[in-house]
Specification:
By secondary structure, the protein is of the alpha/beta class. It has 13 helices and 17 strands. The strands form three sheets. Strands 1, 2, 3, 4, 5, 6, 7, 8, 9, 10 and 11 form an eleven-stranded mixed beta sheet that branches. It is globular. The structure holds calcium ion (CA). The site of calcium ion (CA) has 5 residues, from loops.
Length: 520
């Protein structure tokens, strides 16, 4: 017995020394916006120079800018489920925004961090229908949330707020940080509604662009030639889909009289001028594009300020050197390319999301990575940082070596993409495919129009030509087909997609496919 006690004492002392010697687990600040296109972050250097984002650029300069961060499914809820679980949607169960509900009993990275002593919080946009799990504190927007005076749910209770949503999310994030238990490491997920549709800027940012004229994307008037019916038949154009509310011919909901007065003071004279001009055809599309860019970049300005406030806090608190800061969005977004707004497609502006990461002591400041990474990798990256072994069924990989500029020899060179939601709200046909550094092979499935396309981004960076039938690509096509099949096996993609995954079955075009949608 005496020996056993002595052994225990020795063990405890040894373990204590090991803990004391280990570096403190880093804090994690995860800033996540909704529908933020990389084209609207100045650090990404879009040729249109849509706006300056000094605070996001500050993060890019002190961390790593990822130029090829791809999402498995370019739509809000599914993307958030990927982040939390480190798994594709066919395994985490949240496949579309129409009828999915997140199973909060499954393993997520915040739960695993909690287990090893992290304090965890999520504030802002959630959009997974069920209540958050794995968080010591949560205060989220119900559904899509409102831009002005948004109702919120705090730990299950409805609460009122007043002000602009991005500022509220930032204030709540900072308040939680100030009140946290400083003896423990933390995970804060600060998640914005902005710059989601209907792109309502903060009052202080109305006119921040001084009525500049934004350069148009080259494909604003895409004629959709050389591609299949899916591209022609979508419903997300500035020409046909853009609503009076999108155009701010109607004010956003839920403003106070005072807010509305300031809003109208900016928009009313400009709207009157627009009505008097009686525009049509391409002129109308051009006007809408300008209005869209004013409003979209306006909402991004507040997100950028939010990033600045959080970075400032970490510095003032003296914890910046032990805090990982990540900025990303749930997917990319079309800013007029192909005449579109929205996302969903395997095409670059949609499937590629911004990612800026600063991991003190690991990431190389000011560097750029062109490696194929994904929001699928976030969970395993955070677990790695906390010294927690990731569950074997997670499907991503820690970004640590890539952040350090040491890409492992077996890092992924291809990526599997899938999208299900059909036919509403934007009439984008379900599709899946493989993305490589240069190519995309896509299969549109689940409707009467079942067909494949192949894009060569090296020769066709704007993805305007399907070269599937071009004999010059015959060998490439076979190689991509093989790689796609390999990825589907590796990722456990089911052969047959359950009809409810397509979302709106029972209505419209979904009805014909009620039995099953074969996705070979
Ligand atoms: Ca989104």
């Amino acid at each position: 017995m005496k020996n056993l006690v002595r052994l225990s004492v020795i063990l405890c002392v040894a373990l204590g020394a090991a803990f004391a010697a280990a570096p403190r687990a880093p804090n994690i600040v995860f800033i996540f916006s909704d529908d933020h296109a990389y084209q609207a972050i100045s650090a990404y250097g879009d040729s249109r120079r849509l706006l300056e984002t000094p605070n996001l650029d500050r993060l890019a300069k002190t961390g790593v800018r990822f130029d090829r961060c791809l999402v498995p499914n370019s739509i809000c809820g599914p993307s958030r489920a990927v982040v939390l679980t480190g798994k594709y949607n066919h395994l985490n169960g949240f496949v579309n925004n129409s009828n999915s509900r997140f199973d909060g009993s499954q393993v997520t990275f915040p739960k695993l961090l909690q287990k090893v002593g992290y304090q965890t919080a999520v504030v802002g946009k959630w959009h997974l229908i069920s209540d958050p799990t794995g968080f010591d504190f949560w205060q989220v927007l119900p559904g899509q949330g409102l831009y002005y005076n948004p109702p919120m749910i705090r730990m299950g209770e409805q609460v009122k707020t007043s002000g602009y949503v991005t500022d509220i999310v930032t204030d709540l994030s900072l308040e939680w940080l100030r009140k946290r238990d400083k003896s423990k490491p933390f995970l804060l997920m600060s998640q914005h509604k902005a710059p989601h549709r209907e792109w309502a800027p903060a009052l202080r940012h109305l006119g921040a662009d001084k009525d500049r004229v934004y350069p148009e994307p080259e494909t604003l008037f895409d004629d959709y030639a050389n591609r299949g019916i899916a591209v022609r038949d979508q419903d997300m154009t500035l020409e046909k889909t853009f609503t009076p509310r999108d155009a701010k011919l109607e004010a956003p909901p839920n403003m106070t009289a005072e807010q509305r007065k300031a809003w109208d003071a900016y928009y009313e004279p400009r709207n009157a001028k627009f009505q008097a001009a009686n525009l049509s055809g391409k002129d109308l599309v051009r006007w809408r594009y300008q209005r869209y860019m004013h409003d979209y970049t306006g909402t991004v300005r507040a997100v950028d300020e939010s990033v600045g406030r959080l970075l400032d806090y970490l510095e003032q608190e003296g914890i910046a050197d032990n805090t990982i800061v990540v900025y990303s969005s749930d997917q990319g977004f079309f800013l007029g390319e192909h005449g579109w707004f929205d996302k969903r497609w395997i095409f670059e502006e949609s499937a590629r999301t911004p990612l800026l990461v600063r991991w003190p002591g690991v990431s190389r400041a000011g560097s750029v990575s062109k490696d194929i990474v994904s929001n699928l990798d976030f969970a395993q990256t955070f677990l790695d940082a906390a010294g927690v072994a990731a569950p074997v069924d997670m499907q991503g990989r820690s970004l640590r070596p890539v952040l350090a500029g040491q890409r492992p020899a077996d890092w992924r060179t291809s990526f599997y993409y899938q999208y299900f939601e059909w036919p509403r709200p934007h009439h984008v046909r379900p599709h899946y495919g493989v993305i490589t550094d240069r190519y995309k092979l896509v299969h549109f499935f689940g409707t009467a129009d079942d067909y494949w396309e192949l894009y060569d981004r090296e020769k066709d960076p704007m993805e305007l030509r399907n070269v599937l039938a071009d004999p010059a690509y015959a060998k490439t096509k076979v190689e991509l087909e093989q790689e796609l099949a390999r990825l589907r096996r590796e990722l456990k993609v089911p052969e047959r997609i359950p009809p409810e995954w397509l979302g709106n079955v029972g209505g419209g075009e979904g009805k014909a496919k009620k039995k099953s949608a074969k996705a070979p």
